Amino acid sequence: GVVFPYSPRLGRYNLNFHEAQQACLDQDSVIASFDQLYDAWRSGLDWCNAGWLSDGSVQYPITKPREPCGGKNTVPGVRNYGFWDKDKSRYDVFCFTSNFNGRFYYLIHPTKLTYDEAIQACLKDGAQIAKVGQIFAAWKLLGYDRCDAGWLADGSVRYPISRPRKRCSPNEAAVRFVGFPDKKHKLYGVYCFRAYN
């Protein structure tokens, strides 16, 4: 499977534990366990924002120690913030997905789309607009690679690169995050997902 950090449109550190659990479910995934995050860190996950884990702890994985992330002179590892109030404390979340029961694809379309047009274009193609968990699963489990930014269901725009190259993701294989643009701008394509019955 694959672990991915998630924060909503509101920006970082906006989810209490219960909202974090729901955010992962909404993206076709579940909140990650410590063991899953640890495995992801050993595979190179480096993320400087703290996120909830399934045991209610708040942690983050660092492979390249640097000043804003615990200090330059610290050792790589999974940094532990400990346990926080599940109702009042707000962080990001680490989600985990391993199931991939469908076809994930970039929809070839004659024009760029607004968010609403993107949803309709996938429906017209017999699919749904893809979720964040689905783009990470396609990227990690299937090696999906596409240098086209596309809308996803949560209103974010991302693209998956498994073969790093200039102008796409020069230094690393990653799901690149463009942001949460204004939904009315026709600037992007769309990623769709068609579930297998």
UniProtKB/TrEMBL annotation:
GO biological process: cell adhesion; central nervous system development; glial cell differentiation; positive regulation of neuroblast proliferation; skeletal system development
Cysteine-cysteine disulfides: C48-C69, C147-C168
Glycoprotein found in the keyword field: yes
Main location: secreted
A GO molecular-function annotation: hyaluronic acid binding
InterPro entries assigned to the protein according to its UniProt record, in alphabetical order: C-type_lectin-like/link_sf, CTDL_fold, Hyaluronan_bind_Proteoglycan, Link_dom
Domain (Link): residue spans on this chain: 2-97, 102-194
Localization annotation: Secreted, Extracellular space, Extracellular matrix
Keyword tags: Disulfide bond, Extracellular matrix, Glycoprotein, Hyaluronic acid, Immunoglobulin domain, Repeat, Secreted
CC per GO annotation: extracellular space; perineuronal net; synapse
Lineage top rank: taxon: Eukaryota
Family indicated by similarity: Belongs to the HAPLN family.
Name of the featured protein: HPLN1 protein
Phylogenetic lineage: Eukaryota, Metazoa, Chordata, Craniata, Vertebrata
